[in-house]
Amino acid sequence: MTGGKSGAGLAGALLLVAVLAGCGGGGAQEVPVESLSAEQIFKKGEVALETDNDPEEAVRFFAEVERLYLYSDWARRALIMQAFTYHKDGDYEQARAAAQRFLDFYPGDEDAAYAKYLMALSYYDQIDEVGRDQGLTFQALQALREVIEQYPDSEYARSAILKFDLAFDHLAAKEMEIGRYYLKKGHYTAAINRFKVVVQDFQTTTHTAEALLRLVEAYLALGFEDEAQTAAAILGHNYQSSPFYDDSFKLLTARGLSPEAKGNSWLATIYRQVIKGEWL
């Protein structure tokens, strides 16, 4: 009797230990995701992302929602969250793929603008240094333009416009960097070609005034005084208070020249456009 009770008590104690161990983190049996509702799986993804800071696990849960509850409202929300999570984790290629999939499945959805914006950001956020390959900058500009044109009334349009201007300025900065290098090395024709691109194609950026000054320097070095004077005249018309204009004025006066439009070069054409108010 005593031994029996003792044995029963031991068995009960062991059972209790086993139960407690099962409740612990190490021995817990994870509930199959298939047995959870779409909302429950989605919330697990949110917890993994926001609380656990585990984007890979978050994406796994969001993908499960999409797989198990395809075309449901939760699947739609999970798909845009996949794009967001990938982007937050710096996996820009996967972010674009998820965002594009969202646009393919839900082109008229209220989150379509955000999906398009995420695609643009996935290019834009990779633009970091002037010296980097500018292919990404061109792709960012194209994607940002699509946000602006396709969703002009969305909350993302204004941000896209600001980022578009910065990316556009980035391309001009690259041309300036190369142009300065050629100028420093005495490759004046090559330098002029780069500064010409800035003046003609990136005239609304912050680099135009300097590009005009560098054109004055390069043309004077080659002995093309008409072009140098005309570049300075454009600079004086649009940026008279700029230190770049002061520098160009000093360069010309040192040679007995003055800023004025002369000749029939491409700069003379631009000067005429400036006077007519067609180019600012």
TrEMBL record:
Residue ranges occupied by any Outer membrane lipoprotein BamD-like domain in the UniProt entry: 37-232
Subcellular location: Cell outer membrane
Keywords: Cell outer membrane, Lipoprotein, Membrane, Palmitate, Signal
Entry coiled-coil feature ranges: none
Pfam families referenced in this protein's UniProt entry, alphabetically: YfiO (PF13525)
Predominant place of localization: membrane
Database matches in CDD domains: BamD
InterPro entries noted in UniProt: BamD, BamD-like, TPR-like_helical_dom_sf
Topology of this chain in the membrane: Lipid-anchor
Subunit architecture: Part of the Bam complex.
HAMAP family associated with the record: OM_assembly_BamD
Assigned protein family: Belongs to the BamD family.
Role: Part of the outer membrane protein assembly complex, which is involved in assembly and insertion of beta-barrel proteins into the outer membrane.
Name of the protein in its database record: Outer membrane protein assembly factor BamD
